[in-house]
């Protein structure tokens, strides 16, 4: 793999990730790692054509998760090169099919893009989890949910009226919790008494209008090698379910 790192961060985590990735997989196109100074810059991959770009904040690039984040993005690149439907299907097309003729809140539309990214992440992590221990990934998922649930209000005087995750949107937090459990169950990473389950169930209680269990099953049970039509139907169905508050499995093609 041709790998180049530009920016103010040591290249060692990316070189280590490359060496580990190449024990099982390879990439045909060169990889350019671009370190961004914005600490809020999320880690993401672009595919301009003749090479891949891994964009990552300097904060993330110097964190304990740097190697694992790079491995995850290399897996996305591998899925892209392999033409996997999860990485070739247009999210915009799927959302048009799912939501045509419907009025959807802007926040829910943004959340649908996040859900589509979760589905891509499932397939990327199907690769990364073959390459080594998953301890850091589980801790990362646990930390993310704990952060979303951190700012609890004072107990309300009316029983049952208190919210569990006031600072984060409770609906997408519940979906995110379903994704986290789906990933660990798909790969048998933790036991059922793991703290991640407690956090996920707390998020689910905060969003009673979200069928948390259904979203978990949808993510967990994604077919390993779906055809284009099968994947499109799954993406249309899950985004329509979230945006419209329904849980039917019928989807347009």
Describe the structure.
The protein is α/β, with parallel strands linked by helices. The protein contains eleven helices and four strands, in the order βαβββαααααααααα. The protein has helices at residues 12-21, 58-61, 66-81, 85-88, 91-99, 106-128, 135-148, 170-186, 195-205, 212-220, 228-244; strands spanning 3-6, 31-36, 44-46, 52-57. A four-stranded mixed sheet has the order 1-2-4-3. The longest helix has 23 residues, at 106-128. Residues 152-166 and 248-253 have low confidence and may be disordered. Pfam families: DUF5781. This is DUF5781 family protein. InterPro entries: DUF5781 (IPR043940).
What labels describe this entry?
single chain; 253 residues; alpha/beta; Double Stranded RNA Binding Domain; 2 domains; four-stranded mixed β-sheet; 4 strands; 8% strand; disordered C terminus
